[in-house]
Amino acid sequence: MEFKAFLVVFGSVFLAELGDKTQLATMMFASQENVSKWMVFLASSLALVLSSALGTIFGSALGQWLSPKTIQIIAGVVFLILGAGLLWEALNYAPRS
Q1: Looking at the whole model, is its pTM more than 0.70?
Q2: Beta-carbon count within 10 A of 26 CB
Q3: 29 Cβ partners below 8 Å, 6+ apart?
Q4: DSSP secondary-structure letter at 20?
């Protein structure tokens, strides 16, 4: 039973990460010629492990007070706010001369 849960979590997170801002940021750093690709891989991997640990800790704590549906709605709203903020920054970006 645990292996099935592992596969569901792995598949869900893997698919959610494809093409998201984390992967795009990693690609941006890896594209720079003067940066070690191994350093980018290790740093981004460690960042993902740490953010996953925090998500697990906070999700577990929140799960004691809120329903999974409420947590999902809150996460969706936060995602929309972050996306709107990134879009706002991109539309108001003025390149340096």
Answers
A1: no
A2: 18
A3: 35, 40, 44
A4: S
